[in-house]
Structure formats: structure tokens, C-alpha cells
Write a sequence for this structure.
DNA sequence: CCCGTCGCTGGCAGCGCTGTCTAAAATCAG
DNA sequence: CTGATTTTAGACAGCGCTGCCAGCGACGGG
């Protein structure tokens, strides 16, 4: 570990006080153009980067935020990470990825310890951590800035980026209805995610808007996993008459249902239509490719970081557009 | 942002000097049992966590390492992250996830700037960053500790965790040969990953060990993406006679080939066997589920962090076991 | 022509710890 | 029981920055 240059060495070479170098680094005013240029030259020449630890210790900001997650989906985590990382990087912030167990009894103290230890300037919460009342409360009490990615947004509370799950679910349900389906099953996600409830609500609303009675027996509980999608489909296949379409609350479960259909020799989409939600990598990798809703995961995270670190207070909530992706797992309802 | 407790407050309550608290926190000796207990009590009671920034600045260690990656696969990144994060957490280290572009001209200065800025204690490199000579050289010169995850290991240079790609590729090729396949195509990955070359070598070796001539025409270039797997399969389907098996260098490409087979109405595994490599989430999500090699991605990363932060110098290289997962995309070669 | 103001710059304390040195108490050898 | 050593503890500097305050020359209003 060779010795790294410090701000003092830079100042010596540039022939100014080290305080002036600090000003240049922090883009403060009251530095003449001439001086600024000279300092910047030396900084570039030495490839100098100020010590993050020292700035954190001396200043009131750490330029460090954490993204809290508790999600088993590689796809989801990878993309929110990418989006948040990008915006943080652009704004000169560092991002700590922090997996957590939302059910752990010491969740709040754990988070607080992390905040203290790292002097965090803010927190980005992803589902289901967006829905932990004790956490939100503790954050508010501590006046710690935070954004929530894709929460239910029932109470429009604090900074958040989201998409309209209800509208999206209605859209894909409508797509199915327009194809002639009437017996449409819904595989819901875990209770802990408000998105599951929202998608269920959208499904139900659209059904009723078309005069189709909502049938609770057609709603099967899943947990957003591939396995649970397969199990749900198998349960549905055991019924007569079989529903002609399955709308799964996410792509993993839809892929599970699709695999179950293949296994049971149910032709998709001829005998059964399947729709997912998320447009994860999986949606394009299975056969036939899944009809689904594109959720702008990466953009949601990018906007979240932006909102917290560079946002104006005028628009505390940002809603991003989803998009119905009609692919090959949905088709006209079979006759009869 | 309420005020966090400091080491001085802890020391005041415990009735010792703050230096003694520091000793307890760092598990140094020369502290009486009695004193240690008392201090630990106060620490727990206040939920005190020492300021990472201050320790970094004052000490010679930052308890901070970064995991460098340049990989488009959510699955891969998610799992190395999980493994590395777990071991780092256990050892009291913080992990920075740092995406990078391995082809960028300023890769080395970028990394060095990161190291300086964060006072990093070490680096975990994942493919293809494990194979950048300038990076390795710069790291060596700076005497910065690093581990490489799954490099080629041709020159056994420095710390590394790896698996035997050659042997694994031989194994799965053997499985295909035992099923009666003779015309086995191979879809290779990008040049930048040594794993592609290793897997190709294993494929070739096993072929020749069974007296099957290696046919360069049966090797199609891919880039580890789903698309490239599909393209390779379509190119193969245009040939007569068609190979009876395709061994793809990773699961994404295998899934692409599988989708192409479905599209072209080629029955898998009856008319065509397909094998992948990695045992990613995808392998179980497609239909039929893929025969593949389980690569212990998470364990590789866990071991890497362990090697660098807690390892002994005696075993600088760790090789982890792979496992052949025979699922449903491979079957007896069609007669004819 | 003096004093207030503004733009630019430097001086200095201090953020919360660790490293090192030193002092006091406890332990041990002879 | 004395001198040497070890264990335990505190004092203090200083890591590399930022925040705050002071200084200094230029400029302008009265």
C-alpha cells in the first residue's frame, strides 16, 4: 500500500493553502478562476482523490447512502442496484448494498447501527422494507432522509418512486379479457409486499368493470417464487372446468406455471394463456416468451437516488410508466 | 440526524479512559476481564458502533474492501455479492460493490482512485476483471491485497478461488457421449473470459479421449448471452446432418438454444440434447429443466473473501467442487 | 477620504478514533 | 524483601479533511 497523496501535497505543489484546495474540491465559491484551474491541474496530474474517511469525519456529510434490500430475486436486486449505483456515482455518492431480514426482531437497531457506523446521509428502501412501520417511524424520528422504491403509497408519505401496479394489473387483465377469457385465475404474491395486494386489486377491478364476477376460488396464494407458481398451476389443473388463463403476480411464478403446463401437456397459449408481471430476464428466456408488464426497475432506483440526493421538495413522489409486453404466452381463449 | 454516541461517552459512563474502550472494541489484550465486561455492557446498552470513518482515518486499516465486477448476469453478480457480503459481514468488514468496464482505457487509474478514496484494505476481482494484466500488475506493485474469483489460474499467482472448468466440461461432455451422442456442438463464450477457453478445452479433451475427432465447424462463437445461444442453435439447425447435442458454455446460451429448438419444433431431448453450464436460476426455470454443471458461485465468493481477510498463507488457492446436474434436456441420441 | 462591503485567501480547531509512549499496579524470581 | 518484568491503564499526538473566523486588498457610497 503505497502512500497516497494528501490535500497538503496538492496545495504545496499548486502554491496555495490546503484550505483553498479543499474549496476547489468542494466546488465552493470565492476561489478565483486562475487558482481553481491551477489546483485542478495538480489534482488531475497526481490522480488525487480526497480521503472519504477524512471528509466524513470532518464535515457533516459522508456522501454515503445505503440501499436496503430483502429480496431473493437476483434480477430485481441487480437492476435496482444498477440504477441506484449509477445515479449515486454521478452525484459523487457512494452506495452501500445492505441485505437485511425484514422479519428480524432487531431490524431497526441493526439499521440504526449501520447508519451510525457509516454516518449515512440517507437510505434507499426497496420492498418489502418499504412497508415496515417501525423502520419508517424510526427514520422519521431521527430525521434521516430516505426514499422508498415502489411502495404502496397509500399514505403519500415522504420521498418515493413508484409505478401504478393497480393500473398495470388492470391492463394485463383487460388484455386477457379482450382475448375472450372469462375464467382467469390469479396467483398472488406474499402478503408482505403491497404490490401483491395492488395487483390483485387491479385484477379484480378490471374483471368487475367487464361484468365478470370476482371468484375468490380463482385466487391462489403464492410467494413470488418459481415453485409456488408451479404449485398454483397444478392446483388449478386439478379443477374442472380449468380456467383458460392464469395471471401470475410476477414472472417467476408465471414461469413456474408455464413449466407446470408443459409438464401437464397443456398447450400454451392454445389451451391456456399465462401472463406474468415484471418483465424480468426470465420473461424472455422461457418458451414461449411471457406476456408481461414491464416494470421500470432500474429507472425506479435511479429516480429514487436522484430524488433523495438531488431532488427538489416540490415533487416528493415520482410515478414511472409501465408497459404491457404482449408476447407469446397469451392467445385467444379456447372455444367451448 | 440525532447525535450518535462516541467512544468518549461510553468511556465516561463505564468510568474508564476512552483508550480502554478502544481496546475493548478492538479486542486487544491487556484489559482485565472485569473492565472488559463493564465496557461491553455500556456499548450494548447504548447500541454504540464506532465511527468507521474515524477508525479508518486513525488506524492503518479501513475494514473496507471492494468487489469489482463487469458482468451482465444478474444471477452471477447477485450470488457472488451474497457470498462475499456474508463473509465480510462475519469478519467485520464492509463490502463496496463496484461495477466497472473492463475495456475502459482508464480502468487502472479508476480502480486506484477508488482504493485511495476509500482506503481499501483489499480487492475481490471477478471475471473478466481477473484477467486484466495491467490491473494485476498495478495491484502487485502497490502491494494491495486481492483475491481473484475463478480465474484461469494458468500461472498460480496470488490468492484465488476457483473451480475446475476443464474437468467440469469434460464431465458433461462425457455424459453426452455416454448417451450415445457423437455429433456434439459447442457454443463458446467470449474470449475475455478464460472460462470459455477452459470449457472448450474440456469439451475437446473428452471428445478426443473417446476417439471422437474434434470438429472446429461444430464450435460456434457466442458471448454468454441468451440471444447468442439462440443464434448459434439456428445456425446449427441449418446444417445437415444436424448435431444431436449442443453443449453451451453457460446456461443463458443453453436457454437460448432451447428456445430456438422449441421455435424450430425440434423436440428436446428426443431429437436434440442441450446442456448448459452454471446451474443458474434459469436452468430450473426453463422447460424442460436444463442439464448443467452446478458452479458454486456463492461459495466461491465466500471463500474468496475468507482467503483474503482471514486466510493463512499456506493455501493461497482454493478449488471448489462442481457438480453435474442431470435434468431433462439431455437424453439418448436419436437413432439414425 | 473614511468606512462598510465584497471577493479571495489562509489559519486553526477539531471530527472520533488508533498508535505509541509512559505510569502505576500486580506478579515473579532470587 | 528487593529489583525486574508483566499486566493494566491513561495521556497525547495526529490521521486528512471541513467549518468557522480572521485578514487583506479592491471597490463604492456618503
Amino acid at each position: 500500500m503505497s502512500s497516497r497523496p494528501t490535500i497538503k501535497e496538492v496545495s504545496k505543489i499548486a502554491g496555495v493553502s490546503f484550505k483553498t484546495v479543499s474549496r476547489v474540491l468542494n466546488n465552493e465559491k470565492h476561489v478565483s478562476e486562475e487558482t481553481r484551474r491551477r489546483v485542478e491541474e495538480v489534482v488531475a496530474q497526481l490522480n488525487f482523490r480526497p480521503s472519504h474517511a477524512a471528509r466524513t469525519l470532518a464535515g457533516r456529510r459522508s456522501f454515503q447512502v445505503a440501499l436496503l434490500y430483502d429480496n431473493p430475486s437476483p434480477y430485481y436486486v441487480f437492476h435496482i442496484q444498477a440504477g441506484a449505483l449509477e445515479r449515486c456515482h454521478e452525484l459523487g455518492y457512494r452506495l452501500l448494498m445492505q441485505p437485511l431480514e425484514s422479519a428480524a426482531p432487531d431490524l431497526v437497531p441493526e439499521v440504526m447501527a449501520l447508519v451510525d457506523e457509516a454516518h449515512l446521509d440517507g437510505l434507499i428502501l426497496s420492498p418489502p422494507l418499504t412497508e415496515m412501520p417501525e423502520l419508517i417511524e424510526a427514520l422519521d424520528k431521527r430525521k434521516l432522509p430516505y426514499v422508498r422504491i415502489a411502495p404502496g403509497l397509500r399514505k403519500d408519505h415522504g420521498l418515493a418512486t413508484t409505478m401504478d401496479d393497480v393500473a398495470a394489473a388492470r391492463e394485463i387483465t383487460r388484455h386477457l379479457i379482450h382475448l375472450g377469457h372469462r375464467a382467469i385465475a390469479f396467483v398472488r404474491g406474499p402478503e408482505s409486499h403491497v404490490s401483491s395486494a395492488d395487483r390483485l386489486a387491479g385484477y379484480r377491478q378490471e374483471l368487475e368493470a367487464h361484468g365478470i364476477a370476482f371468484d375468490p376460488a380463482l385466487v391462489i396464494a403464492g410467494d413470488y417464487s418459481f415453485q409456488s407458481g408451479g404449485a398454483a398451476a397444478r392446483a388449478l389443473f386439478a379443477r374442472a372446468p380449468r380456467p383458460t388463463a392464469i395471471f401470475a403476480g410476477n414472472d417467476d411464478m408465471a414461469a413456474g406455471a408455464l413449466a407446470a403446463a408443459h409438464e401437464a401437456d397443456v398447450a400454451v397459449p392454445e389451451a391456456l394463456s399465462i401472463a406474468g408481471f415484471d418483465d424480468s430476464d426470465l420473461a424472455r428466456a422461457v418458451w414461449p416468451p411471457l406476456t408481461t408488464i414491464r416494470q421500470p426497475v432500474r429507472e425506479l432506483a435511479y429516480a429514487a437516488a436522484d430524488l433523495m440526493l438531488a431532488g427538489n421538495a416540490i415533487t416528493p413522489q415520482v410515478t414511472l410508466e409501465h408497459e404491457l409486453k404482449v408476447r407469446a404466452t397469451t392467445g385467444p381463449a379456447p372455444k367451448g
